[in-house]
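User: I'll paste a sequence; please echo it back and then give the predicted structure.

Assistant: Echoing your sequence first, then the prediction.
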Amino acid sequence: MERTERFCKIEMLIRSRGCVSFADLMDELAVSRATLKRDLDHLRTRMDAAIVYDRDRNGYRFETVGRNGRRSFTAESPGVWFNEREIHALLTMHQLLDGLGVNGSMGRHLQPLLDKLNGMLGTSESEARELTRRVRVVAPAHRPVRGRHFERLASAVLERRRLRLTVEGDAGARDRDRVVSPMRLVHEEGIWFLDSWDHEDEALCRIALPSVRTVQLLEARAKEVSMRVIEAELDAALHRA
């Protein structure tokens, strides 16, 4: 269990039970005595969590007022200990899943994932909803892929089969037919790309999927290119751009 997840669980246990013994916290988190001591110390000294030891009840609870005289953020709002990368990842996943909706055929698969994310973002549905309103991640404009193209492209990547694509020309140029060996799908700034080996140019290329007009799945096996080579050539070129 990662440290951030342990922090969430400590807060949820104390919040739900009111007071939790050191032994129970160790059992619930499945950590050593030293690790739990470090976690509690970090929460109290670095995150200003108003966690106190209650001698009469032999356990840890939240106090109403923090050491600085203000109410503890930890006792009031969820997720305050997430760092920049963690909160961005959690909220991005939440927005992506929420955007797909849970009423369609994928609903029964998506709902457990959303429930899991809500549990990480807050100890109640209202708290998770409040955090998603207070911290907003604005995604780039999405450029959709035509029709059933994405399904065929993804199948070709996984099945290692070649494709014949019709790709729109740049700046008024004629459309071009290309036979490619698909290597991987990449999502960058709201656009899906297909990293491929172009059999006419005999070179690696990155094709923006919104520019693909037609997709034909071929029987021929895809050419194999080392992922290390693909990353070195295509990812490096993207970072230089």
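The radius of gyration is 25 Å. The CA atoms of residues 152 and 218 lie 11 Å apart.
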